[in-house]
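[Primary structure, fold]
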Amino acid sequence: MLVMNSRLIGATVLSVQAGGPIGKITGIVVDPNDLKVIAFYLDGPAINRQQNILDVRSVREYSNYGFVIDDIDELVGPNDVIKISEILKLNFNLTGLKVETKKGSKLGKVQDFTLTSEDFIVQQIIVKRPLLKSLNDPELTISRNEIVEITDYKIIIKDEEKVLKKKAEKEEFVPNFVNPFRESQPGFAPTDTKIPGAQDN
C-alpha cells in the first residue's frame, strides 16, 4: 500500500507491551543512498528525549491505526545504531529539495513523497512547480525510476517530457467500472472499527 509521507507525520505508535499508544511520529529519517526510510522520530509523554528514535526494523505493522511495535524499550538514541547515526550526520531532508532534469531544466521542489507501507521505500516524489509553470501543472508526481542522482541540494531526473507524458496519460484514463462500495448505494452503511486500547488522534 502506498502512503503519503505527510500522512505518517502525527501517526500514533502503539506498543503491544503497554497495550496502547506511547507516542506519535514527528519526523522521518530517509537514507539518500536508496531512498528508504530507516527510522522515525517520536514524541509523547512516555518518550525519553534521549531515546526517541524508532528503528524501522522494530515496526511490526503499519495500518490506519498507526504503527505497532513490541515495547517502548526498542526506541534508541541517535548514536545507538551505527547506520542511523551515519545517516543523521548527513542531515538529509527529502522534502524541500530542488528537482531538475539532466539538461538543467528546473521542475520545482519536493513537497511530499509516497512510500510503501510494507518496506517503507520511497516510490514517488511529489514536486511543487515554480510559479510560472504551476498554471498548467501545479504539481508533478515522479517515480523513483526516473531519478538518476541525489545531492545535498537537489534531485536530478532523466527527462521532463517523459514525466509530463505519463501525467497526461494518467489524466486521460477513464475507468469503466462501477464502485460497488459507493455510499450512495441502498443498504450501504460504513462502520468504524477501533483497535482495543487505541486513542483517537
Summary: The first strand starts at residue 2 and ends at 4. Confidence is low (pLDDT under 50) at residues 172-196.
